[in-house]
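Q: For a teaching session next week I want to show students how multiple molecules come together into a single three-dimensional assembly. I've collected the sequence lines for a complex. Could you give me the predicted structure tokens for the whole thing so I can convert them for display?
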Amino acid sequence: MSSDKDIMIEAVDVNKEYRRAGAIIRALADVNLKIRSGEFAIIQGPTGCGKSTLLNVLSGLDLPDTGRIIFDGENIARATEDRLSRLRRQKIGFVFQDFNLVNTLTAIENVEAVLWPTVLRQKEIENRAISALRDVDLLDRKDHYPVQMSGGEKQRCGIARAIIHRPRVILADEPTGNLDPESEKQVMDLLKKINREMETTILLVTHRDLSSFGDKVILMDNGKITKIK
Amino acid sequence: MWRKAILLSLREKKVFTVFTLIYTTLIFLTSLFIDIGLEGTFGELAWYFVIIFFGTSLFLSMLYAWILVSRKRRVWATFKCIGYTNKDILVLVSGMIFFTTLVGFFIVIEVLFHFAAVIAYVNQIEAINIPLTILVDLLPVIATSAIFIFVQIIAFILAYRKVLKVRPIIALKKVGE
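A: Of course. Below is the structure for the complete assembly, covering every listed component.
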């Protein structure tokens, strides 16, 4: 039995509409969802079903039109931009489909960048970055630039960046969308390992069938949750 | 964060080199014409040139701020996703602009010192009678630095307004979308 204390992210009656080319598109329709702490949840559905919008809303990157988003006990649906930035810095790690590494920075510098605005000393930041790169088995590539790395390595670097500050939640938007099947398995195994060993809650959005990796699979279509497995 | 701004500047080799050279030229010319203006050699004409260089530096600083924010929107959006506030990004952008100007100043001061040194050296070795002239006094260079720092503040304001407009959600969009 899970209590409310175990709930890491909760969406309550969330609605979101877009206006595109004069037409109103209902991206999220009365979405209710609970993600427990330490859970590996996968949001799955076809392109345009609203899964990325849901991820954006749950992370505070986008605001819902109506409804509440409770993140670790705090309603973030109307939080200020600075508050959301701090929340992301302390509690959220992002993994992007296009990796979003800075091309002019090396792998270790890309990972360290998360902690640049903090009060930590450079040596401490470097130690943490080395530890994160070791966790993703990329330490031997620490001085390489993104252009010198393969897609799988770039994504592992992106995952190291997402875990350097030991976040409570990792949000991954199609993290294997640009990877070959072998790299996809490596990345998913890595995320599963982080989920188990660090007890990090993972919320992953995908259009592929990756349900075997998740504790919970949320199926979406037309802005609605159609099934939770 | 200032150190990281320097790191980011130096890694943006092309933009950094081009703007450093432009700033160096502008700082030198502005200092030179302030010097000439103070001496009264060309009358009011020298001050017109100072105003032109001042306007050009204002335009260039704003262009540099615009390039740094607009060309790297996806980078700043990603930084916002990983927890950077608008202020954090502004520190990086303004640090990059300020560092470029500072390097320009050091180059101008270095060139002026070496110019005087070379003249003194040639006079001593070759016994040629070149009058020992200082190309630009230190005072005009300091005055130019004050003007350029004021101009940077205007560029920082522009950069901040542009940084505010960068939405972190851009980072999640697919490349080319």
